[in-house]
């Protein structure tokens, strides 16, 4: 993924790309991988797809991307890769990971930092009928974790901790403005 190298014959990869009218790339790289290298691999696959489908640069198609990574890497992904990625509130659970696998209703949400980042508008990603509760925020027009609240300051649905940070920032800014 990071160096865009395939261990098998590239003929099947190229045929797959050539036959694809639409491309969705889903990646779940090791958390220690550098985001710049992962982004290089994603861009290279999209470029290969446009090359195989004989698309010129002016009419190049964009592949939809889903990137599974820890939520605390959001800043790196947005600043070093692509600002069009959005982080979903959906919590990824692994079946065979000793630290991040689902353990039923007793597992706390904060125990698993794994989310997916996507270039697909979050309003198109439905999170209904899942084991964990999600709701639609009518203001954001996307599915969010059921325990998140919409923050009028940053205009997004955030956790209670983030909401408090926005309120503290606003309060400190107001205090500073009035010279207190």
Top keywords for this entry?
180 residues, two-stranded antiparallel ribbon, 8 strands, 4-stranded mixed β-sheet, elongated, alpha+beta
SSE inventory with pairings:
Layout: H1 10-19, E1 24-27, H2 35-52, E2 64-70, H3 74-80, E3 86-87, E4 114-118, E5 134-137, E6 142-145, E7 149-151, E8 156-158, H4 160-177
Parallel strand pairs: 1-2
Antiparallel strand pairs: 2-4, 3-4, 5-6, 7-8
Helix pairs in contact: 1-2
Structure, explained:
The protein is α+β, with helices and mostly antiparallel strands and 180 residues long. The protein has a domain at 10-124. Helices cover 29% and strands 18% of the residues. The chain is built from 4 helices and 8 strands; from the N terminus they run H-E-H-E-H-E-E-E-E-E-E-H. It has a 4-stranded mixed sheet, with no helix packed on it. It has a two-stranded antiparallel ribbon with strand order 5-6. Helix 1 (10-19) packs across helix 2 (35-52). The longest helix has 18 residues, at 35-52. It is elongated. The mean pLDDT is 81.
């Amino acid at each position: 993924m990071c160096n865009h190298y395939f261990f098998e014959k590239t003929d099947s990869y190229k045929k797959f790309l050539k036959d694809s009218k639409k491309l969705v790339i889903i990646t779940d790289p090791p958390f220690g991988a550098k985001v710049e290298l992962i982004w290089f691999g994603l861009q290279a696959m999209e470029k290969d797809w446009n090359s195989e489908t004989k698309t010129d640069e002016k009419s190049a198609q964009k592949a939809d991307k889903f990137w599974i990574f820890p939520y605390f890497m959001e800043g790196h992904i947005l600043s070093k890769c692509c600002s069009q990625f959005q982080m979903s509130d959906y919590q990824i659970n692994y079946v065979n990971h000793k630290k991040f696998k689902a353990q039923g209703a007793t597992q706390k949400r904060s125990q698993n930092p794994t989310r997916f980042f996507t270039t697909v508008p979050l309003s198109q990603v439905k999170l209904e009928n899942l084991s964990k509760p999600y709701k639609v925020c009518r203001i954001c027009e996307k599915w969010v974790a059921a325990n998140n609240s919409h923050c009028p300051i940053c205009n997004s649905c955030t956790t209670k901790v983030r909401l408090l940070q926005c309120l503290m920032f606003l309060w400190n800014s107001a205090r500073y403005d009035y010279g207190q």
